[in-house]
Structure formats: structure tokens, C-alpha cells
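Notes from hallway chat w/ T.B., transcribed later so I don't forget. T.B. wanted the structure written out for a chain they're using in a teaching module, and asked if we could keep both sequence and C-alpha cells in one place. Agreed to drop them here.
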Amino acid sequence: MSTFLLEIGLEEIPAHLVTSAESQLVELTQHFLNDHRLEVESVKPYSTPRRLAVQLIGVADSSKSLSEEKRGPSIERAKDANGEWSKAAQGFARGQQADTSDFEERDGYVWLTKRTPGVDANIILEKIGEEVIKKMKFTTYMKWANHSFLYVRPIRWIVALLDSKIIEFNILDVSSGRITRGHRFLSTDHIEIENADEYQTTLSNAYVIADALERKEKIVSQLKNIALDNDWVLTLDNQPAQELLEEVNNIVEWPTAFAGDFDEKYLEIPDEVLITSMREHQRFFFVTNQSGELLPHFLSVRNGDENNITNVVAGNEKVLVARLEDAEFFYREDQQKSIEDYMTKIKSLIFHEKIGTVEEHMLRVGHLSNNIAKTLKFSSVAQENLQRASEIYKFDLMTGMVGEFDELQGIMGEHYAQKFGENQQVALAIKEHYMPKSAISETATSDIGAVLAIADKIDTIVTFFSAGLIPSGSNDPYGLRRAATGVVRTIKAKGWNLDLKPLISQFIEQSGKVANEANVSDILTFILDRVRKLAVDAGMRQDIIAAGSANAGKVNILHIFDRIATLSEHQNDKDFRSIIESLTRVARLAKKEPVTQSINPDLFENASESKLYKAVETLEDSMAISEGTDVLYESLATLQDPITEYFDTTMVNDENVDVRLNRYAQLNQINNLIEQLGDLELIVIK
């Protein structure tokens, strides 16, 4: 068994791409190994800002040999009247790179056993440049020199070693070898790796921690030790801190943590401003005291060792102070105006050149918010607060603070709204209308904020669809998928039974020219795609998701999630298969003859018809909404035996027209209930 090392040396990769690139390299490498039938014990990934690497442990000497049986033409076609091999047989042999003498005759056909011998590992690994490195995809590309080849950043070196042997291949003008590079400032440019299993040790001696997980653990340990020594509280377990930690980890190769200070006078600025200045602009971690109050200190990480650390600290403090001076100025200046002053400026702010102004966007959102509030039966006080919030919720876009720190939009809106005398509910809604900001971040907690968030996102989706600015492929420059995900997640989190179809249809009618090119069906499909995506992310089966999200006459997000959850919960029941089979048998027949007439029990000709009729009598068409999909499924499950007995004793297509239509009416009655669970025919019975 051998060890293989592949390292791609690059100019600095953007921090947000490093982790995903490492994962992609592992995935492509595993596909490569599978395709070539080359077995390894494990695949160990590495990444830093300047390199992506994999180490294959326990590489087999050669790929596994393969033996496949191929069936050819029938013997009748394979031989002519004289018993000689026909052209069809000879063509089959040529296609398999074999000879007719290799044929076996059995079961009325000719067969070939195709044996593919194993290939030496070093020969296979020579293809890794073409089949792995060149196949990597990125969201950001660069082109360099006179090459047409695009990559995340220019490739500067490649290491490819099978134990101590160089596996030779080229990517553009870069040849694989054993020379890597250490830390840009603490080591030399050219470091020789003697053996593939010495990778980590060799780089560590050159001031590079190649293992991203090990590097992150070192950063966390250093930060925590500094905080502990100073009796500071450092929070690293929330999403913003984890994202910052990931970013910092992906911009350093040899991390050294340090602490810095800033003047206490800046603590008069809202905490959110200080934290944003530190985290978003300087990649600093903030600290608090034991009571949770922000302290005038920060933690950061340099890409280097302890040498001249005092100069590094002083430089970082100086840069932060410049940011805080700006923040202090804008904070003071912003409060010299009023919300009305900012709303006057909003009139000239363009939402999108094909759609109109932000003010027009806000007016539409106000109308839609009002319609949603009425549907949800908000109190008069809540409706008043929602109306006020919808009239001003974008005012902070015109403030100096948000102009300088756009990450603070909504946050400063809430803070300034309270400063300007708005009540807490209105102020909170201004902040929460941006939520959720990502697929995993928190949704709005207040009802007013949630409605405003939903309405704001629906208006964005509808008007952009109307303007023909629809996402295609992975391209979504206006974040419409994120907006749709936000609508879905917010409705689900609030547990609201909202039918989006009439709401969006009415909204399009009321909004006039700016929305009249939007197709309701396309928009609802777009939103339902986000429901399916969230269900996939939750680990649910694709066929269950497809079944539960189908037949959505009412686009009730909560109900659709309930359908999918119910089917998922029962998928492993021992009787799930038989229940689904009996229900889909009913559904298939009902769809063939969609009869709407009433059922006449006098036309029943056997006991099974009456028995099924009585079993269904207790089930109401609205059960899925009023009592939940779990109750509906359990109720439909009780029909399994009556349905089986019915089909065993009843010929649905009776010669008597009245009897036949009556039986189809009975099947359609049941199918009306079944369809409230979705389209069960899409479930793959296992």
C-alpha cells in the first residue's frame, strides 16, 4: 500500500471559496478513484489560502480487474443457414474488441465475457490533472498570461507524489513535481517534499498548517486563552462568529492571535455598529464582560508568528479607530434629521430601473401587508402598527451610517426609529423585514415583522418576474431564490395557514403595469421549488417530497410541509406499501373518469360497496386543514381493507351505465380525500 499526495499551489484564494473548493476536490477525487476502480483506505483533505490538497492513504498497487458478461444477438440471428457467424455476430464481437471464437452459447443467445485487467496506480494517477484538477468549478474565475484556461486563481505549482515517486503531468505550463512553497514571509519559496506521507510535517516546518481543521482548532484555542487571561467573554458558537472564524481560518496559514484596544468613548455608539465595524470590516472578534456588556477591546489573528506583534497590534488599532471615527460622525449627523427628511429622499431612490422607485415598492408592500393582515385577522392595533411600519421601513437607506455600513440596514432603522419616537413594534418590524438574511439565519419573531418580510419579498419576486428578470440555472443576481426561501421559512416558522395563490393573484391585479406581466403559476412554482429544496435539505426522500408538494390547489406552505412530513413519518411503517398501493389504485381509476355526481347507495349491488361507502362517510373533505394531515393519513389507512375487498368483488366498469357512473362517483369521493395528501402515485414503493 502506498500514499499519494496531490497539491495544487495557487495565488491567494478568496476566503469564502476555500472550504467549498476543498470539499469539491475530495468529491472529484473520490469519483476519479471509483471510475478507475482504484481502491484507497482514506482520503485526507487539506486547504490554505495558497493551496488545495488531498492525501490518499493506502493506495492499492493497481486497479481492480473487471469481468463483465455481455449478451449479444440471439443464436438464431448470430448464425446463418450454414451455421457460420453472421454479420450481426461479427459486429458484436468487434464492438466488444473480441473475436467470435470467444463466444459462449447459452439460453438462446451468444455471450462474451469481457475481462479488463487492473492498471498500475501510477499510470492511473497520471490522469488526475485532466480528470480532477481541470474539472473543478468555481463561482469566481481568473485568466492569466496568454492562457485561455480559467481557474479560481492562477496555478503556480503542483505536487504529485506516489510515495517518493513523482507522478508526471502538466497543467498549462506547470509541471507536477515535489516542490511546494512554505509561508509567504516566514519560509522560502521552494520546499522539497521527499515522500507523500511527510506532507504535513514538511509544511509545518515551513510555517504552514495545511489541515484546515487543525488550524481552526489552534485559532480557537489561542483566542479563548487570551479571553480567559483577561476575564473577557468571547462568544464563538453563534452563526456570525462561526462565519467569521471560517473566514479568518481561510486567510491564514500560520495563525497567531492577539488582542487590541480602542477608546471607551466609542462605546456610546450602538453595539451593533461597533461589532459590525470590527467583524465585517476588520475581521475582529468582539468581547464582553460577564454581564454581556461590550468592552473596548478586540481579538484578531495574524498570518504569521509572534515577531513584531506589537507593531501588528498598533496597526490594527489605528485602522479600527479610523472606522469608528467615521461611525461616530455618521451616528451624530443622522440624528440631526427626521424620518420625514429621509422619506423625502427615498422618492428619488431607484428600486430597479425596469420597476420603479423604492417609494413605489413600499406602497405596494403596504397594500399587500394589509391584505395578509386581514387574512390572518390581525387586531386593529396590530394593523395600525403594520401600516406605519410599511410607510417608513426603508428610511434608513438614506442615512449616512447605512451608506457607509450597508450591513446595518434594518438594524439602524430599528435604532433610529426608537430614537425618533416610533413604538417598539414598528421599530422591530423595520429591522425584521430583512429576515431571514440567509437560508439558515433566524426568521422574524414579531407578527408585524413577519408580514412585512413576506410582503416585501413577494413584491420583489412578482415585479422582477414581471420585468423578465427571472433566475436561470445557478444565476440569481437579484437573490430571488433567497427571497422565496425567506417567504417559505417565515410562513412555516409562524405556523400561518396562508393560501398564496389568491394573495398573489390579487396583488398582481392591484399593482397594475409594474406586475401585470407576471405569471401567477410561474411564481407559485418558483416558491414551491423552495419548499422542495428545504425538504431535501432536511433529508427527506425526493419521491415523498414530489408527492406531498403535488396537487397543491391551495398553495398553503404549512399544509404542504405537513403533507411531506406525514408521508415521511410513515414511510417505514410495515403497512405503508400496501396502504399506498390501495390508495393509488383508487386514484388512477378516479382520474380516468372524473365523475362529480352524488353517490346513490340504492345502486350498490354488493356488500363491499356499502362497506366502503360507510367507511368513507366519516371523512370530511376539509380534514387535512381542520384536523391535520396525520389524522387524514390515519383515516385513509383504515380504508385499505375495504378498498381491497371492494376491488376483489366489484367490477367498476359495469355494463349498466348508472351503476358504472355511481361506482366512479364513489372512487372520486375517496380520491378527493387522497389528493389532500398530494399525488401518491409519485411515491416509489420499496
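Follow-up for T.B.: Residues 484 and 529 are 9 Å apart (CA to CA). Might be a good example for the class.
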